[in-house]
Amino acid sequence: MPAPPQSPPDPCVMVIFGASGDLTFRKLVPALFQLFRDDRLPPCFALVGYGRQPLSDGDFRARLRDGITRFAPDRWSDAAWARFSPNIHYLQGSYDGREGGFDRLRTRLSQMQKECGAGDNAMFYLATPPAAYQPIIRGLAEAGLERSVHGWRRILVEKPFGSDLASAQELNRALLAVFRERQIFRIDHYLGKETVQNILMLRFANSIFEPLWNQKYIDHVQITAAEAIGAEDRAGYYDATGALRDMVQNHLLQLLMLVAMEPPVELDAESVRDEKAKVLRALRPWRGEFGTEVVRGQYSAGEIAGEPVVGYRQEKGVPPDSRTETFVALRVFLDNWRWAEVPFFLRTGKRLPKQATEIAIVFKRTPHSLFAKSTGQDVPPPNVLVLRIQPNEGIALRFEVKAPGPGVHLQPVVMDFPYDSSLGRHAPTAYETLLLDALRGDGTLFTRRDEVEYAWRALEPLLAVWSHDASTLHLYAAGTWGPPAADRLIGASGRAWRCP
Fold first, then answer.
1. In a 3-state reduction of DSSP, which class is residue 176?
2. How many domains does the chain have?
3. pTM (2 decimals)?
4. How far apart are CA 4 and CA 1, in angstroms?
5. Do residue 255 and residue 349 come from a single domain?
6. Catalytic-labelled residue, pool 89, 189, 220, 251
7. Which domain holds residue 115?
8. In the annotation, is 426 catalytic?
9. What's the pLDDT tens digit per position in 421-434?
């Protein structure tokens, strides 16, 4: 069945700060170009790239064209580019407002809004290093660009959203001093992935799942985000950040919220985000004894797919005595009615055997085996529902059946639903989804102020201990699934990690 048609968003001008950076080049403009090809952008749409490099409009367009052909070659069309590119412009300026950059931007916006019929609507995308966020916000306010007389203004902020609770609160205060919460779109690109959005549909559109989605039937939940790559060219950023800040505070906690939240009253932004925030409020706080609840690790030399790789401290740009974690495993509990005493095991790491992000819902075993005498087996293994986020997006359910032949022998089988091939449609990229929602003013897939601050508040005790306790760092060989301590963390309760 084809998707229901949606009207395009309002005409507008989009300004990307950090226009000469990799995010614009690799992700944002390829996504906008695909939206244009799919007739999902407004008929009157213009793009202004704002950056510190001196580029002409032609130079900027050539760079963007190269990005689309390199990183999204299947989306390229000469004819579409000929129609899309004339409305792309570039403006050089500093992020702190010196040299009149924001005044020139105001003039350029006014001209373009008249030329392309975009009215008074403008959207600002902060695709810059985090240090530039607050200067840009102040510059927009001083130039009067946060206000519109006959339209709207919106601002999109990329992660990382702060590096701890205090910095996140400071950034929120800076944003809310200039914009209202409904104008602010904080991006976590995981929320734009089709299979992440599908968590809500799976739970709340199917009566066979939701009645079982609680502590009576679910034994535990595992959320894994594994990467085979190392620090690579992000070493400078990553060593100051680490796995807890880079992955757990945003991506993994967002997946936890979607799995554990209560049904919203409606499928609108505020109702969904209200229920997500309640999950973080229910997180059981750590009391200071982290040995059985949290494991942090750092990869040493090893092999990935048969190829030798160096350890983290030997990576270019990483200090030889770095104590930054590249792996984190946690056991968390939610103190609420639905999830009382159900453990959630979260793990993420670099230089693991493969790239894989998944959520595994592990159901309780049957209370008694009817087949023990005939099969020689104890209670059969548990049913598992797996939501594959990336790659090979899909859903799989494992259950037991009788093996063919005489006698009674149980055999596990898997019912597998591959997302793309089963539905017969190409899934949009995360940035296509998020940009289109922001243009429409729909904040459902964006994080709200309280979500961000609750997440940081939950992790503050760990950051405080790790800042001065070097003994908590476990080494693991590249190409393995993390340090043995992570296996002990889950194994202490008689459970084991899945291999995605």
1. helix
2. 2
3. 0.93
4. 9
5. yes
6. 251
7. 12-158
8. no
9. 666 666 788 999 99
